[in-house]
Amino acid sequence: MGSILSTLLRSLVPTIRATIPSFLLTFISKPKPVHPLQTYQFDKEAILKRYEAERAKRLRQDGVAQFQTARDGAFHRFREDVASAPAREPTHAETKVLIVGAGFAGLVAAVKLEKQGVQDFLIVDKAAGFGGTWYWNQYPGAACDVESLIYLPFLEETGYIPTRRFCYGPEIREQVERIVTKWDLARRSHLSTEITSVVWDESILRWHVNTNHADHFITQFVVMATGTFHEPKLPGILGIENFRRDHFHSGRWDYTITGGDENGNMDRLATKTVGIIGTGASAVQLVPKLAQDAKKLYVFQRTPSSIRFRDNRLYDPAALSASLRPGWQTQRMTDFANILTGAVVDKDCDALEGLEEFTMRAILKEGTVAGVTVQPDQIPELMQLADFRLMEQIRKQVEETVKDHSTAAKLKPWYSFMCKRPTFHNDYLAAFNRPNVELVDTNGQGVSYLTETGVVANGTEYEVDLLIYSTGFDFDVEANFYRRTGIQLVGTKARTFDEKWDEKGPSTLFGVHIREFPNLLYVGPAQSGVTANWTHTTYAVGDHIAEFVAQCLRDERYQAFEPTEEAEEDWGRQNEEGSEMRLQFAQSCPPGYYNREGKPEEIPARWAYFPKGIIAWTKITREWREEGEYRGMERR
């Protein structure tokens, strides 16, 4: 019946049109405005076909097993601190709060505790200095890729304004030292100290913490701020143990071999042939410096990064400081997060440069300018078109920058924008125009093995004097906690942390509190409020931890707090929302640490970030604390 009716209506169209005045017909026939993204000419099928081909040829059966940790065995030296640990006597002490980690998360937690009046805490870190990721990654060219005004913690409190939009490692560590000095944190810290075990004692409702220095601490609360970018990951290839030339991981840079400092000037490389394995975020910052100083540089690539240029302009600290109002830094963080997730914000935020055209806000704004109201069912298509457009721009930029056509073709990323960590650098692509730099593209297979003096890739041996592994860190979300931290964490049922989470993935309340582990406060991405600016996450989680601990210490009726099973289950279900869509996207991406080396189906849905975003997470946890009822908590 439907088809008969539609045929009849179509047959009447010429008659109807003939009876309508021409001026009215013109008005009726005027096409409705379309979103500008829908006017771009893309060969969608061809692009998706290329994406799939590039993904498929990189897949490996061994997945994450293609890498090896540097924690144990023959590769332990690749994780050792270049600074030697001072000898000291073991410490035996009690404290209210023990913070594991002296990176941003640990330092922010400490300062937030101090602001809440909790001063009895101790910070422990395996590094010889403060800063976490920024202590370990002191390679030439290391810089933040989030705007420094929202990335460096406590700028307002310390009265410091960064010198440029994306500041370099030394300036970041200087700010870390300001924080340490202002809040007198060094006095309450044990550095060059690895925690070996954290064990709950139900008889005294306290944690026993032991270290590799034979220290023993008893504490009521433990803040687990171990971070993610500190444990070096090496390629699982033959020959590393037999390589006879100098080699080290980029996260343990050895200036006694290269000379120079974080600005470059590596004079000891002037007569050397250098190889670097990896083309991720660290390598993108490293390669231009190595290209300037090495006699010859081989860059071994599995998958190219997406590279965007950025305006790393200098600030005028005096003028900028005069324009700022109280609360400016946290407000700027909030604006950044809101705009990134598409919330309606009545202002622009130039902190988003390089990302804004890919945000929902930009897509809606582009439609409004064209007179189009975007409907919810149009959003997936428009997001994909925005992705196509952005990646085409990135590939065109490669083409316009790299002079050799063959090299340029190999440096083009063929995947969706957020499949891999986006990178930003003005000099990386241009480095491949230098006569001393050679890209060794492995067609997605990675290097084959090492000889005593060189790297074998594509059947060819490349002899090197120095080999740098820029292969990232042990970020595998399915890797057990002990492997990533070296800490044996044991809760109320004599079960380890790993045994608990092995059941069905993370089980938490807010991504912070964990049943069977009373008074343990976990700082990590799983089930927590996360945004592109990790510092914002540490602020949000740090506020929650500090206010919660302060509340608990004031309430002398109870000594131990842990979530109920029901509370964990409810929070877990909330974090599973949208998991199918996330899985489909991850399955379309080439292998990398974002998708467990091409096997995202092995990642439990509960490993996801809180799907509603950091602003919603902050509101939920703040209201929970303000209730003061410890809803979803068992107390004793």
From TrEMBL:
Sample GO molecular function, one term: monooxygenase activity
Cofactor(s) needed for function: FAD
Key words of the record: FAD, Flavoprotein, Monooxygenase, NADP, Oxidoreductase
Pfam family, one: Pyr_redox_3
PANTHER family recorded: BLR3857 PROTEIN, L-ORNITHINE N(5)-MONOOXYGENASE-RELATED
Family designation: Belongs to the FAD-binding monooxygenase family.
Name of the protein in question: FAD/NAD(P)-binding domain-containing protein
Organism this protein belongs to: Aspergillus viridinutans
